[in-house]
Amino acid sequence: MGALLAALDERPQYRWSELDIERMGYELSTIRRSFNRQFGMTFLEMARQRRLRDGFEIISEGGKVIEAQMAARFESASAFRASFAQLLGRAPGRLDSDPMLFADWVATPLGDMISVSSRSQLHLLEFVDRKALKTEVGKLERLARGKLGIGKTDPGDQIQAELSAFFHGKSADFLTPLAFAGSPFAREVWDELRRIPPGVTRSYSEIAKRIGRPTATRAVARANGANQIALVVPCHRVIGADGSLTGYGGGLWRKQKLLEIERQYRSSIKESTKL
Hints:
The chain is of the alpha/beta class. The chain has three domains: 1-87, Arc Repressor Mutant, subunit A; 96-179, Methylated DNA-protein cysteine methyltransferase domain (Double Stranded RNA Binding Domain, 2-Layer Sandwich); 184-274, Winged helix-like DNA-binding domain superfamily/Winged helix DNA-binding domain (Arc Repressor Mutant, subunit A, Orthogonal Bundle). It has helices at 2-10, 18-23, 28-39, 43-60, 65-71, 77-88, 133-143, 154-167, 184-194, 204-210, 217-226, 252-274; strands at residues 101-106, 113-117, 122-127, 148-150, 202-203, 238-239. The strands form two sheets. It has a four-stranded mixed β-sheet, sandwiched between helices. A two-stranded parallel ribbon has the order 5-6. A hairpin with a 6-residue loop joins strand 1 and strand 2 (113-117). The longest helix is centred in the C-terminal third of the chain and has 23 residues, at 252-274. The radius of gyration is 19 Å and the shape is globular.
């Protein structure tokens, strides 16, 4: 899968086909099963989703749906609307013109993400291929009484800048104001996750002990999985009691990459404490 993902990153606007996959030496059914198991979608569905970025940006700038469809290189308006709805839960023509929550597209070296924010807080940050993304956006949409749209906000711009600094090795600090939609227990777990330093990992049981609930390991795991502000609330820093990588909504390969990226920050922290 790694080679296909790398090829997709190199040519995100290309209209990939099954023939392209076969030319790279892969068996179609094997790739289909592997991608469905890991990402909840096929490679071709992922490639189509990547092309949505151009259409997404056209709409965010006030462009027409037909212009967005052409920019995204979709063969038909219905296919474009369906792919858009698969991502955000509604077709572009059904987006609110005066929204309370604004979706924005965020490009990162580990794949594209979607942020959803109000004018004052970040509510969601997820990779576009996360299985639960559509469900999570739907919950926020209901909380906002359907007033979901596309556009820029101060929190959205701030998280983009902080993510850029993170991936370029400049800073692991995330100061964007956050809005948590969860139970008091879940918010307590998420607060504890944010206390884990970059490059450091904790087990579910360690987190349970740190919040004074040593028998709540499974509840901690559920809260960890329910986090919808990826990276900022670093659920990727939670591992199994035996040190193994456990499930991660963005994919275990991303979890591994994030921990590798954060090792540089751990080294920097150690060096600064010596001075």
